[in-house]
Each structure stands twice: as structure tokens, then as C-alpha cells.
Design goal:
By secondary structure, this protein is mostly helical. The protein is built from 6 helices and no strands.
Length: about 160
């Protein structure tokens, strides 16, 4: 009987040692939201950096022909995301672009910016963005232009 009592006590002590420390769990539960917030803040900062870099690229490479809110040599870029290529009524597109069945999104803009003529033969834009990172940043900036005023939402 004494051995059984001893074995039970040893077994209970071993079980207690194998249980996670409750205070550690509480600490984890308390710190987890802060960790998630830090990761989210870092991701937002990275995205803000991409957008800022894209704006610089836009200002140096695109403003010669395009503006955000008005047509110029090229069509306006406000609300370009989700817009069908060649669809702004008051801009004169090439027949190739006007007849393209493309809706601008990250994927289509990336292909377009990499080599417009290869993507839509017969188009009139003779500028490309060869670096992947530059295209990514430029697209991140163009995406911000698609949330401006509802007045500009109409093609």
C-alpha cells in the first residue's frame, strides 16, 4: 500500500511539472496582440515605402504624358484600377487599346508596363518599366489613385 501511495504521489508530481505554467500562458495571451500589431505596422510601413517610391517613379517617368485627373498625351490615371483599357470616353485611344479586352489590375498593369507593345500590339505608348521592383512600386502608387474622388470614377 505504501508503494502504491508513493507511486501515486510521484506520478502526481510529474503531472504537475509537465503542465504548462499558467502565468506563462497569461503572458503569452497578453503579448500576442502587441506582436500582431508590430507585424502589421511593419507591413504598413513597407507598403507606404513602396507607394512613396512608386510616386517618385510616376513623377519622373509618367508625368510627361499622363496626369492623375486630366487627359494629356496619355489618358488620366485616376481610378485606373478596375477600369477597362481604352474606355475613357473623352480620350482618343489607338484602335488596339480601345479594342483590348483588358481590365487594369496588378497583373495586367505589370504586363503592360513591362512591354506595352508585346502586350497590346499597335498601342501608342513607347515607354516601359523594365525593373520588377519599379513596376511593383509604380503599381502600388497607381492603386492609391483609384480611391480618390467618386467624380473621377466614371470613364
Amino acid at each position: 500500500m505504501m508503494t502504491a501511495l508513493f507511486n501515486t504521489r510521484v506520478w502526481s508530481e510529474q503531472q504537475e511539472k509537465s503542465k504548462p505554467d499558467i502565468s506563462f500562458r497569461k503572458l503569452l495571451v497578453c503579448l500576442l496582440p502587441f506582436g500582431i500589431a508590430l507585424i502589421a505596422a511593419d507591413a504598413m510601413a513597407t507598403k507606404a515605402d513602396e507607394i512613396q517610391a512608386g510616386k517618385i517613379i510616376y513623377e519622373s517617368r509618367c508625368l510627361g504624358c499622363h496626369t492623375v485627373e486630366a487627359n494629356n498625351i496619355g489618358p488620366r490615371h485616376a481610378n485606373v484600377f478596375g477600369r477597362k483599357a481604352g474606355s475613357i470616353a473623352d480620350f482618343e485611344y489607338s484602335p488596339a487599346l480601345r479594342n483590348a479586352r483588358i481590365v487594369w489590375n496588378e497583373k495586367t498593369l505589370d504586363r503592360w508596363l513591362q512591354d506595352p507593345e508585346a502586350y497590346i500590339p499597335g498601342q501608342q505608348m513607347d515607354v516601359s518599366v523594365s525593373k520588377d521592383g519599379d513596376r511593383k512600386n509604380l503599381i502600388a502608387y497607381l492603386k492609391t489613385l483609384s480611391t480618390k474622388s467618386s467624380k473621377l470614377n466614371k470613364p
